[in-house]
Amino acid sequence: MNITVSQNRCPQNHHCPSIRVCPVGAISQNGFKAPTIDPEKCISCKKCVKYCPMGAIRVTE
Length: 61
Known about the structure:
Layout: E1 2-5, E2 27-28, E3 36-37, H1 47-51, E4 57-60
Antiparallel strand pairs: 1-4, 2-3
């Protein structure tokens, strides 16, 4: 299972609110671009998936 960011769903005009709910700091963002998720740090807790208001962060198999 992987957590990914759908750039088509992310408006890329704000700081990603899901960054603050990641317990391991696996989400980063450069300016207002779509965030990226570090698979080495991610523990697949899905907190960011539930917190993303745009549904841009998703679980993929």
